[in-house]
C-alpha cells in the first residue's frame, strides 16, 4: 500500500487533503483510483492512518480516515550522521541511503578540505533533500522523518553535536586507533538519551588539527577496517555497521 507523509494541518477531524504535488503523483504517476483505493498516511509523530480516497476538490485529492495505529518504532539508539558538504549527487545519495538505515539527524558541515565550500542557505537544495528523505522514509516504512540540519562550519557542527551520548570520528590518519566493535558502544548502555553521532570526513580527509579539535569536543577515533573508503561509502557503510552493532548490543 502506498505511503505518504503529510503535515498535521492536512489531517483534520478524520479527513485528509493531499497537497497538489502528491495529488498529481497519486493520479498521474501511481494511477490510483481516487474513489476506490486506500493509502497509508503518516503525520511524522509516529502515527499512521488508513485512508480511503474519496475523489478530488479542485486539484487536491481528498479522503477519510478508516483506521489509526502506531507506526514502526524508531531504533532504540538514535544514530546521527555528520558529513562534509560535497557534490549534489553524493549528498543526495547519502541522505537517501542514510534515511533507509534509520539515521535520525544529518549534520552537514564545511571543513578545510571540503570540496564544496558553500555555506549560504539554499532553500531549493534543502527542500530537495527533504523530499528525498521523505520518499526514502515512505519506502523503508519509517513512521518518522529524519532531521536534515542546515550546513554549518566544522566548528559549529562540533558544538551542535555536543549533547549526544557517544561521539565517534572515523579517521585514517593513524594506525593506533580502535577498531569499531561492541566495546566501543558500551557507554550507550547506561546513557540517558541513547544517542550516537558518527563523524565522517571530506574527500580530502581531516587535517590533524581538525581531529584534535573533534577530540577536544569529546569525539573518539575509530576505524572501520583497513580499506580507505570514499566519503559517501564511509557514510553509508559506517552507519550500517553501527546500526548492526547497536542492535546486537541492545538486543
Report mean pLDDT, rounded to a whole number: 92
The overall strand count is 14
Biggest pleated sheet: 8 strands, parallel
Q: Beta fraction of the residues? A: 25-35%
Helical content band: 25-40%
Please state the overall shape, judged from the principal axes of the Cα atoms: elongated
CATH architectural group of the largest domain = 3-Layer(aba) Sandwich
Classified in CATH, the superfamily of the largest domain is SPOUT methyltransferase, trefoil knot domain
Calculate the terminal CA-CA distance, rounded to whole Å: 30 Å
Low-confidence stretches: none
Can you tell me the CATH class of the largest domain? Alpha Beta
Order of helices and strands: EEEHEEEEHEHEEHEEEHEH
Structural domain count:
2
- The CATH topology of the largest domain turns out to be Alpha/beta knot
Radius of gyration (Å): 20 Å
Number of continuous helical runs:
6
Amino acid at each position: 500500500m502506498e505511503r505518504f507523509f503529510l503535515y498535521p494541518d492536512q489531517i483534520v477531524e478524520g479527513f485528509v487533503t493531499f497537497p497538489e504535488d502528491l495529488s498529481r503523483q497519486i493520479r498521474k504517476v501511481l494511477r490510483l483510483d481516487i474513489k476506490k483505493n486506500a493509502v497509508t498516511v503518516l503525520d511524522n509523530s509516529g502515527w499512521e492512518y488508513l485512508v480511503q480516497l474519496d475523489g478530488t476538490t479542485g486539484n487536491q485529492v481528498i479522503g477519510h480516515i478508516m483506521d489509526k495505529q502506531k507506526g514502526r518504532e524508531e531504533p532504540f539508539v538514535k544514530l546521527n550522521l555528520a558529513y562534509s558538504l560535497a557534490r549534489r549527487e553524493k549528498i543526495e545519495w547519502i541522505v537517501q541511503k542514510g534515511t533507509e538505515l534509520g539515521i535520525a539527524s544529518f549534520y552537514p558541515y564545511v571543513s578545510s578540505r571540503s570540496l564544496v565550500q558553500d555555506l549560504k542557505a539554499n532553500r531549493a537544495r534543502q527542500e530537495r533533500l527533504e523530499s528525498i528523505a521523505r520518499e526514502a522514509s515512505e519506502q523503508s516504512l519509517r513512521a518518522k522523518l529524519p532531521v536534515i540540519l542546515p550546513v554549518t562550519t566544522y566548528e559549529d557542527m562540533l558544538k551542535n553535536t555536543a549533547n549526544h551520548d557517544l561521539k565517534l570520528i572515523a579517521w585514517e590518519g593513524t594506525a593506533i586507533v580502535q577498531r569499531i566493535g561492541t566495546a566501543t558502544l558500551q557507554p550507550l548502555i547506561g546513557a540517558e538519551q541513547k544517542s550516537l553521532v558518527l563523524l565522517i570526513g571530506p574527500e580530502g580527509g581531516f587535517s590533524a588539527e581538525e581531529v584534535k579539535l573533534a577530540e577536544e569536543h569529546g569525539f573518539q577515533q575509530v576505524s572501520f577496517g583497513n580499506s580507505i573508503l570514499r566519503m559517501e561509502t564511509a557514510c553509508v557503510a559506517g552507519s550500517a555497521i553501527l546500526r548492526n552493532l547497536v542492535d546486537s548490543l541492545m538486543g
